[in-house]
């Protein structure tokens, strides 16, 4: 641009930049490590200034909204017997049973019963279908099963079908949806209704379709939550992501005019917002690549003003309490103390240039980024402790770049649990970490986290599996399997990190950093550092 426009003109430019070309639904999902909450913070801002009317899933109600009298939600899932999912070739029956358990983490009132199509005709299945709010069919292709479902699901208000016969009809809020095979998974609506209802249903279908195609456990659960939120009853974790329309716009212009203007005139900041506006809000890889590709001080100032200082999105989020994960209590036959727990985090730092390297993670958005190094160390001030993740991102221009964050770490009440906080691109994230287990020889460790970015209305969970050199441990090791089970994580949920081509990582700790206090790899218990 040639000249700086006045404030009113810059506001108009901001409106044109932020207004989406179509309305979006905002995702819940979990997110974290390296900077898990950042992605949807910016995605929400970039889309928040759309029309005041929210889409159905944002309002928690759509056409044909239903719910049981006691507030519970009953879902029936029927999967093809012996059918295999794309999640590391895990049987769909196992995937959906696990999804049923994970739905309980969101709300204890969510009940999902899982059957295979061998149960067709059985009284138990008939009984569940007669009282369910939603039917989910997965990999149903047997024609006898298809016909039976058509005959016995007519009264169910919400039906979604994945990887199943096109003969099966999808229904949202009592309205049928035809699968044409040309558009998204569900295609277009076949019956005529109110234009607004059709747009809302189309948006729900698009969101569900895009999420399902990413083939991970978080997005499978998200698909169900979107439908529940739109057509059955509100889901709290989705309500936090409502766009506020004109109130958001007014807040931004009133409080953050200079930051908006600076962002629009900064090439990287402007590209970041434009890039985010082109991503689906449920595609966290796309969103995070936008941020990582175009990080800039102006982008940080923009988000710090809009989200953190003025809370223009009027959002709130709390750190999730589920799943409840208990920390390691004993290490090398002695009771875990806060000092020993910190030593476990410090890990291999001293013998190596890093504490740990991430082998795999559960979070689909972030834990798969290449070349993740962890640095844990004690600070100069008494009781201070720091965590610095260093990771690689491939930018939209195809360039591999290194990114680094810095978390303040405080001890929680129980040894092996910690509070983490970070200012990441202008937004504060707070997390609760648990040392689930570390092998006695420091050959592997498993760390679990719950987190929230309050001003962005985001809550998330996940875990990282770490080793000293980034090579994978034996995931069938009974002790590691038990640690994963404590987190409610299945082996097929883990994303393997690409630890090839990791030369040139910007490692290093402050000169006044202090490391192990009592225990270190290869060294027995004893006072190693008194600080």
Overall description:
There is one protein chain. The protein has 531 residues and is of the alpha+beta class. The chain contains 15 helices and 19 strands. It has helices at 7-18, 38-47, 56-59, 92-106, 123-131, 143-152, 195-212, 217-231, 236-239, 246-265, 267-278, 284-293, 297-309, 338-346, 478-486; strands at residues 73-79, 110-116, 134-138, 158-162, 170-172, 175-178, 188-189, 330-331, 334-335, 356-361, 373-378, 385-394, 400-404, 407-411, 417-424, 427-438, 445-453, 458-467, 495-496. The strands form 4 sheets. It has an 8-stranded antiparallel beta barrel with strand order 10-11-12-14-15-16-17-18, surrounded by 5 helices. Strands 2-1-3-4 form a 4-stranded parallel beta sheet, with helices on both faces. Helix 6 links the parallel strand 3 (134-138) and strand 4. The model is unreliable at 1-41, 47-64 and 179-194 (pLDDT under 50).
